[in-house]
Amino acid sequence: MVKAVDGLSFDIEKGRTLGIVGESGSGKSVTNLTILGLHHPDHTEIEGEILLDGQDLLTVSERELERLRGNKMAMIFQDSLASLSPYHTIGQQIGETYRKHTGASKREARARAVEMLTKVGIPQPDLRVDDYPHQFSGGMRQRAMIAMALVCDPELLIADEPTTALDVTVQAQIVDLLKDLQQETGTSIVFITHDLGVIADIADDVLVMYGGRCVERGTKKEVLRAPQHPYTLGLLSSMPTLDGPVDVPLSPIPGTPPSLLNPPSGCRFHPRCTFTEQVGGGRCASEQPPLELTAGRGSACHLTAEQRAEFFADFAGTR
Ligand code: SF4
Ligand code: MG
């Protein structure tokens, strides 16, 4: 079955991780669903839905969202200092989320906080539970954020660039921790990053965003080993191997990411794409290629499968 999807729509299977590759957003707010960059004012072109148990997270009321948040779904962000209150202890903050959704007593909440800190690998959790965020290292704060996010066993964890601010070693530890916790809890994860190395490590499925649109999706193996979209190809070409260096910049491709306020016509990638001649007829600049998916696999590009096979052959040989 071939299905053309306009905009962005995806569902995540239980216990799986969807990696979303795209430009880092800025000015993320913890208080609303800017989570996927979908609600940034400069991303308003995006239409779509994010279904959690049949409920579209992009249209639920703020109140309903408040109920879901922390309970059914939780989020972690890059900037743990901005997300944690400096005036409350780590234990109070983990405990508060727990109490809000379970009605547990303060004492029970504290015990739960210690349990969660243990789970995320904080040493001496029964002591550190009374620390304030500034007493934790960056890596420990990110662990505490994860503890807070998972305290109510959410079905969905949205992690928006959660490791970007950390050094590579700590980054890898956090990714390992998330994978372990996912094994244990079956939580589904949406992991947003510009870092393909992290995607290679953690994702089951991958969605590649360009200029506010989904340009390619598939399983990790499909997308990383047999990319269909020139943008994905460009991203991957800057990675020596899938297991190689982790720190891949977002724009190894000549040119700059498009303005979303005034996006390029047709295919938004066309000003930077080296295959427009092959498509010919000025089509790339005039006609937006639809995202064509077959069983969750596909891309949005005017190149034919035969053309891709020919032009992308060099790449395939290197993996
Ligand atoms: Fe490049 Fe054209 Fe494909 Fe866009 S549609 S990625 S410009 S070949
Ligand atoms: Mg974003």
Automatic annotation (TrEMBL):
Keywords: ATP-binding, Cell membrane, Membrane, Nucleotide-binding, Transport
UniProt entry tagged with the keyword Lipid metabolism: no
Pfam family, one: oligo_HPY
Major localization class: membrane
Protein name: ABC transporter ATP-binding protein
PROSITE patterns per the UniProt record, alphabetical: ABC_TRANSPORTER_1, ABC_TRANSPORTER_2
Family: Belongs to the ABC transporter superfamily.
Keyword Repeat in record: no
InterPro entries attached to this UniProt entry: AAA+_ATPase (IPR003593), ABC_Ni/Peptide_Import (IPR050388), ABC_transporter-like_ATP-bd (IPR003439), ABC_transporter-like_CS (IPR017871), Oligopep_ABC_C (IPR013563), P-loop_NTPase (IPR027417)
Entry membrane topology: Peripheral membrane protein
GO MF, any single term: ATP binding
Database matches in SUPFAM superfamilies: P-loop containing nucleoside triphosphate hydrolases
Classification via PANTHER family: DIPEPTIDE TRANSPORT ATP-BINDING PROTEIN DPPD, OLIGOPEPTIDE TRANSPORT ATP-BINDING PROTEIN APPD
Subcellular location as annotated: Cell membrane
Domain ABC transporter: 1-236
